[in-house]
Amino acid sequence: MPVIAVIGAQWGDEGKGKIIDLLAEKADVVARFSGGPNAGHTVVNPYGEFRLHLVPSGIFYPYVLCLIGNGVVVSPSVLWEEIEQLRAHGVDTSRLFISQRAHLIMPYHLLLDKLEEESRGKKALGTTRSGVGPAYVDKVARLGIRMEDLLDKENLHHRLQMVLEQKNAILTKVYGVPPLFLEEVYQQCCQHGESLGQFIRQIDPLVQQAVERKEKILLEGAQGSLLDIDFGTYPYVTSSSSTAGGGCVGLGLSPTKVDHIFGVFKSYITRVGGGPMPTELRDETGELIRGRAHEYGATTGRPRRCGWFDAVAARFSAQINGFSGAILTRLDILDTFASIKICTGYKVDSDKLNYFPSSAVVLEKCQPIYEELPGWQSPIDHLHHFDQLPPQAQSYVKQLEELIGCPIVLISVGPRREQAIELRPLW
Ligand code: IMP
Q: Which of 19, 67, 169, 356 is the most exposed place for a label (fewest CB within 10 A)?
């Protein structure tokens, strides 16, 4: 299967980093296509433990071409720091390329993300404050600065002058904060151009070439489907298309070329930031999951909200993405529980809902309807075959498969590469 997309199926943090790392071993190309430094993919490998925000997780394999697509918004300083950290650990970064069409996160985007969040008060979205939302706003408003602009100083100066006029008016008149200075921002951009220039490329020919040669291309999703700008729990969403369709527009790849779409699901569910989450556990069970799984944001360090697996949301996610396979992560976290719940429907007032509502207001009112299964209460993190799993764990997995509506192809039972049970060949 030459083109595989790996998509977060919940509210992000499903453990995609490890899955991409596993698949990247046999890939020719690994590409990020959406989001920005709001993503944090944790990869544990012989080089050490890394939290990658922008660089595709394929970077650890020296023969893999790593691409940052046009759909990504790039913080040049975060990217440069990441490149330097990788190099310091002996990782070769010479096969990393960034689309010249990718937009930059500028200093005013960072400021605006913070100021906008503060002005929302109790209704704050809980953004990662990495400037991602405001950068996408400018992309759509046709006010963005793109990677290629860093390489054309004259045009850069001209565009910055025009954009800063507008941004400074907002900063000073709406938020009452000091303006940014054109020459300072311009000089910063020139420096970024010097350090990152070697990585900026027209990457669409590289993608087309790989497709023609039938090379193995891995699309590395960021965030999760329930945070998608169109299909997520709006307005508590991120600002990009984190679903499978985003993989095509965010890279310049035809939908007809994608052979497999794998949805990554945690064996329970988490969410970081604001917004409704019907199965959230605000009790000691939630604490127990958070503690066992160390559920703290890779980008912001915020504690993640934890809850039981939500099969209503999972099925919705499988349908809008067209998952051909599901990957279940962190099953080992549930090892100690005497019983495990799965949400199979919602109750709203006296009505029963068996679909995921579009309205965050309605979802807020949804009470989960649970099905309870016995736990296995024994460690599974050393097992390599499905039939070695305790019968209760097998039943849990089969029940999730039935409810999600597509075959489970891989189960992850620990952070290391080898802690995985493959049910079907992935490539
Ligand atoms: P933003 O993407 O920083 O604008 O944040 C918007 C929402 O998406 C917030 O609720 C964030 O917590 C959430 N979010 C963004 N990126 C991630 C991620 O990688 N994992 C989990 N949640 C995320």
A: 169
Identify whether 385 is a catalytic site residue: no
Report helix, strand and coil shares of the chain as percent, to nearest 5.
40, 20, 40
Common-topology check for domains 103-197 and 266-422: no
Q: Which of 223, 233, 266 to mutate to test the pocket of ligand 1 (most atoms within 8 A of CB)?
A: 223
Query: What is each CA distance from 374 to 1, 288, 336, in whole angstroms?
Result: 37, 17, 11
Expressed in angstroms and rounded, the spacing between residue 57 Cα and the centre of ligand 1 is 19
Look at the chain and count its residues.
427
What are the sequence ranges of the domains in the chain? 3-100+200-261, 103-197, 266-422
Domain 103-197 has CATH 1.10.300.10: yes
Report in angstroms the alpha-carbon separations of 67 from 30, 86, 119, 303: 6, 16, 36, 31
Model pLDDT, residue 44: 78
Find the 239 Cα to ligand 1 centroid distance in Å: 9
13, 138, 149, 332: the catalytic one is 13
* Count of CB atoms situated within 10 Å of the CB of 46: 6
Run means of pLDDT, 10 residues per run, the chain, 427 residues: 93 93 94 95 81 92 96 98 94 97 98 97 94 98 98 97 98 98 98 98 95 97 97 97 97 96 98 96 97 88 95 98 98 98 96 95 97 98 98 98 98 94 95
| Count of C-beta atoms within a 10 Å radius of residue 170 | 15
- 94 to 29, 73, 118, 175: CA distances (angstroms): 13, 21, 40, 42
State in Å: Cα 138 to ligand 1 middle: 18
Q: Which residues contact 69 (CB under 8 A, 6 or more apart)?
A: 31, 32, 33, 34, 99, 102, 203, 250, 251, 252
Structure tokens at 142: 């046709």
Regarding beta strands 408-412 and 420-422, do their DSSP bridges make them parallel or antiparallel, or are they unpaired? Answer: antiparallel
Q: Which CATH superfamily is domain 3-100+200-261 in?
A: Adenylosuccinate Synthetase, subunit A, domain 1 (3.40.440.10)
Class of domain 266-422 as given by CATH:
alpha beta
| Cβ-Cβ contacts under 8 Å for 363 (sequence gap 6 or more) | 233, 276, 278, 356, 357
Tell me, what's the pLDDT at 1?
59
Residues with CB under 6 A from ligand 1: 11-13, 38-40, 125-128, 130, 132-133, 223, 227, 236, 238-239, 272-274
DSSP for 149-169, written as a single string? GGG-HHHHHHHHHHHHHHHHH
pTM across the whole model: 0.96
